[in-house]
Design brief:
The complex is a heterodimer of chains A (515) and B (356). Chain A is built from 19 helices and 22 strands. Chain A is an alpha/beta fold. Chain A folds into three domains: 8-240, 3-Layer(aba) Sandwich (Rossmann fold); 244-253 and 280-317 and 329-340 and 429-463 and 471-506, Rossmann fold (3-Layer(aba) Sandwich), CATH 3.40.50; 347-424, no CATH class. Chain A starts with 7 loop residues before the first strand and ends in an 11-residue tail after the last helix. Chain B is mostly helical and 356 residues long. Chain B has helices spanning 4-8, 17-33, 50-73, 81-97, 105-133, 137-155, 166-173, 181-199, 202-211, 213-218, 223-249, 261-271, 283-302, 307-325, 327-337; strands spanning 41-43, 46-48, 161-162, 175-176, 179-180, 251-252. Chain B is globular, with a radius of gyration of 22 Å. Classes of the chains: A alpha/beta (515), B mainly alpha (356). At the A-B interface, helix 1, helix 12, helix 13, helix 14 and helix 16 of A face helix 9 and helix 10 of B. Chain A: Pfam families: ABC_tran (PF00005).
């Protein structure tokens, strides 16, 4: 493979943001017909490198050559025209346009100058059929699930005559079937000679498909390796930069939890036939003090909807909720917070943080809201709290006054966690707290959850990763098709296979995507 | 977010640098045209001079713009401030005109309280439409912008109410501690709003609601109350401005009081660095913006610029201020000047992120 000429080389790329050296002399080479995984922790510089390549950012130094010619794209449009297409982590399409319009925007098929709508729809239908996605292309994109939107984004990038296809965490919101489907598409494209840059946090996917791996750490290049010559554990070490047996230590920490004592007394929170039409079918679930309840299920199975009902983010239209045995009506988040319930949304940017405000302001926001605007948290107290949690969660960069939007995803997640931890909740609801963040931060958050529950906090833990749910939870509630189908006690006999069986059994719509 | 280069440029990148430069240039131009422009003298214990006049005349705009800053920070807009000023002024003047002793301080205080009360109701109306019913702010306040003018005329029965009240006139043209009373009021209200927003958590909560309303709701902020509150504050500010404007001329003309002041106020807020999309707001910037606009208006008259071209002149200056204030525009200009190969600078740095 190495005798061939690379289609793309990036040499000694550096990029500096205010207060952050995002990239420092990074190299990357990409051969035609290979899947090249770009790996690294949050803040390692993966997304920045990609944005430099596609011209979203300019470089501060370094060169990019495509087919031997030096290039410098002024933006994604120009990069796309040169054959470098990108599908970003967060879907970058227009939900208020139809699927077909999204695919062909900017390059609509025309006849006599006018847009040929019928041709556009026909081509879009064909294109999506190639990746086994059978949906109505004249429907608004926003009416489809995030997973479908992601697939449309990929279809769009594939359709443009790409020689280099960049997939920036395309799988983070897809379920197993969709991931398999995507991998099939990737192999197909690779065999057609397209070079694919694949950014992901899922190691299994890397080893399933990538030919070569480039590892970044803290904006620097660690090295380029053939996948076949780099064992998983070595890869993790290179990404984190230190040997890590934290996961094993974590197992010891949680195994101490004794279910019998936990279940004594009245449950902290008890839902009885709680539900909301069109959102989640009535369910019953109890959470005791110090208990971690895992919520497992496929994407769109109703996990988030359950969490939102507990927090009052949506209003329940059926059933009852009791806190400390007393019935309560939780109609809005304020009512939930009054009862010491906290909720970290899975959508950090849209439902979690206020990007323009500083790290400090974001952290004290919930505490301040609970006190009311007339009783500001004294500045000294704010600084103490913020310093403490920046240190405790190792939020980087450790600058309390930096606008939170300048932080990487994992650090943003920690800021959101800190916001709720300073309110000292009795029930902490975590919706996908480790999605899209690196192994180091993931372990830190898992360990924190274990510590908190040991300290008596109840946690409702939602995650697409079964291993994670099983590692942390005392019991696991399984969701399927917007119904809570069963509760499983997490004893020695429970393993991922059994949970998966529950998720899958009876599900007639396997492989289809809830719209 | 400033780029590294802009930060290195130091002072020039401060958001108030260019508005202040233009303000100083305007003052210098006036001084060159008429050297006595800068002189301030003390007559009968009162300060007089063109500079004092500019600040006095800008007082109503400063008041309206302060309220507007808070509304804009929540991501809204209040088009009804001019109409609210007219209604408040009309209510106060009507009450005074019906009293036998127009010079009684009690009468004037009652009149001001009445006008203020009506304005608070109008603000609450805006607040209910926006926060309660969820109508888009521009539409909700447009209703009162139009209806308020009608209301003001209804109150005055289609006439211009003329009054002859010494104490009321003080609001517009009186003096306190050598300063025009209007300046003292504007100063006091500015301080009050600053304390209200920055010494409490109100300012941060307003910025949070404007920055991300859904995230704020899920953090336990009662966004609707905050939104409601800013429209009430905005109307209260407009009412005080209305008293000033009617006291200035001792009459209330429902059609003329505060006409188009909402547009000047929006402009002042934007020049001051607050984004129309909501989020961070800057009260100091708003005051500078209001002073700049009034200086411009005064200059047009003082320098005998042909009335037919004065509006265009004003427009040109405003466009220049807005453009040189925009980092993207300055970056483009700088790049064009420095010919050698400069890397492409990101345009639209507002949305820039340092991602994973």
């Amino acid at each position: 493979m190495s005798e061939r000429h690379p289609v793309l080389t990036m040499t000694a790329i550096s990029k500096i943001f205010p207060g952050v050296r995002a990239l420092d002399g990074v190299d990357l080479r990409l051969f035609p017909g290979e899947v090249h995984a770009l790996m690294g922790e949050n803040g390692a510089g993966k997304s920045t490198l990609i944005k430099v390549l596609t011209g979203v950012y300019g470089t501060d130094s370094g060169t990019i050559t495509l087919d031997g010619d030096e290039v410098s794209f002024s933006g994604p449009m120009q990069a796309t025209a040169a054959g470098v297409s990108t599908v970003y982590q967060e879907v970058n399409l227009l939900p208020n346009l139809s699927v077909a319009e999204n695919i062909y925007i900017g390059r609509e098929p025309r006849r006599l100058g006018a847009v040929n709508w019928r041709e556009m729809r026909r081509r879009a239908q064909e294109l999506l059929a190639r990746i086994d996605l059978h949906i109505d292309v004249s429907e608004l994109l926003g009416n489809y699930s995030l997973a479908v939107q992601q697939m449309v984004a990929i279809a769009r990038a594939v359709d443009i005559r790409a020689r280099v296809l960049i997939l920036d965490e395309p799988t983070s919101s897809l379920d197993a079937d969709e991931v398999a489907q995507l991998m099939r598409i990737m192999r197909q494209l690779r065999d057609d000679g397209i070079a694919i840059i694949f950014v992901t946090h899922f190691l299994d996917q890397v080893y399933a498909i990538a030919d070569r791996i480039t590892v970044l750490r803290n904006g620097r290049l660690v090295g380029e390796y053939l996948t076949s010559e780099l064992p998983q554990i070595a890869l993790v070490e290179k990404m984190i930069g230190k040997e890590l047996d934290a996961l094993e230590r974590l197992d010891e920490a949680t195994s101490g939890g004794d279910r019998a004592t936990l279940e004594q007394g009245t449950p902290l929170v008890a839902a009885d036939g709680l539900g909301r039409s069109g959102s989640v079918a009535p369910f019953s679930l109890t959470i005791h003090q110090g208990e971690v309840v895992g919520l497992a299920g496929l994407l769109g199975s109703g996990r988030t909807e359950v969490a939102r009902l507990f927090f009052g983010a949506d209003r329940a239209d059926a059933g009852r909720l009791a806190v400390d045995g007393a019935p309560v009506a939780i109609r809005n988040p304020v009512a939930a917070i009054d009862r010491d319930i906290a909720f970290c949304s899975e959508n950090r940017r849209t439902e979690g943080l206020v990007g323009e405000l500083s790290v400090r302001e974001n952290i004290i926001l919930a505490m301040q809201a609970a006190r009311g605007w007339l009783r500001p948290v004294p500045r000294r107290r704010q600084d103490e709290l913020v310093q403490h949690w920046i240190k405790a969660l190792s939020i980087r960069p450790a600058d309390p006054e930096m606008p939170v939007r300048n932080l990487s995803g994992g650090n943003q997640q920690k800021v959101l966690l800190a916001r709720w931890l300073i309110t000292e909740p009795r029930l902490l609801i975590l919706d996908e707290p480790t999605r899209g963040i690196d192994i180091g931060a993931k372990t830190e958050i898992q360990r924190l959850v274990a510590q908190l529950s040991d300290g008596g906090m109840a946690v409702l833990f939602i995650s697409a990763e079964l291993e994670e749910v099983l590692r942390l939870s005392h019991k696991v509630a399984v969701m399927r098709d917007r119904q809570l189908v069963t509760e499983l006690t997490n004893d020695d006999s429970l393993d991922a296979a059994r949970v998966m069986q529950v998720i899958a059994s009876g599900s007639s719509q396997e492989g289809s995507v809830p719209a | 977010m400033s780029t590294v280069r802009a930060r290195a440029a130091g002072v020039t990148s401060h958001r108030l640098f260019w508005p202040l430069v233009v303000l100083v240039l305007l003052l210098v131009a006036n001084a060159v045209y008429r050297p006595s422009f800068l002189s301030i003298e003390l007559k009968n214990g009162h300060l007089y001079g063109s500079l004092i006049d500019i600040v006095r005349l800008s007082a109503p705009l400063i008041l309206v713009a302060l309220g507007m800053s808070l509304v804009i920070a929540t991501g809204g807009i209040d088009l009804s401030v001019g109409a609210v000023a007219a209604v408040a002024g009309a209510v106060a003047c009507l009450y005074i005109s019906e009293q036998p002793d127009q010079n009684s301080l009690g009468v004037v205080l009652t009149a001001v309280a009445l006008g203020f009360g009506v304005a608070l109701l109008l603000g609450a109306w805006n607040g209910i439409l926006v926060a309660g019913i969820g109508i888009q702010p521009i539409i909700a306040t447009l209703i009162l912008m139009v209806a308020g003018r009608g209301l003001a005329q209804l109150i005055a029965e289609g006439q211009i109410i003329t009054i002859n009240s010494g104490p009321y006139k003080v609001i517009g043209v009186g003096h306190l501690l050598t300063l025009p009373f209007a300046i003292v009021i504007a100063l006091a209200v500015t301080l009050l709003v600053a304390v209200l927003t920055r010494r409490t958590a109100l300012g941060m909560i307003i910025e949070s609601v404007g920055g991300n309303a859904e995230a704020s709701r899920l953090a336990g902020i009662r966004s609707r109350r905050i939104t409601f509150l800013v429209y009430v504050v905005s109307a209260a500010c407009a009412a005080i401005a209305g008293f000033m404007m009617t006291a200035n001329v001792s009459s209330a003309d429902g059609n003329a009081v505060g006409l188009w002041v909402e547009l000047d106020a929006i402009l002042a807020v934007v020049i001051g660095g607050t984004a129309l999309a909501g989020g961070r707001f800057y009260l100091g910037g708003t005051v500078v913006g209001a002073l700049l606009i009034q200086t411009l208006t005064t200059s047009v008259y003082a320098m005998n610029i042909d009335p037919q071209t004065s509006l265009l002149f004003k427009a040109v200056v405003v466009i220049v201020v807005c453009l040189i204030q925009a980092p993207a525009f300055r970056a483009r200009f700088r790049r064009r000047r420095s010919v050698p190969v400069t890397p492409v600078e990101p345009v639209g740095t507002e949305k820039e992120q340092v991602p994973a």
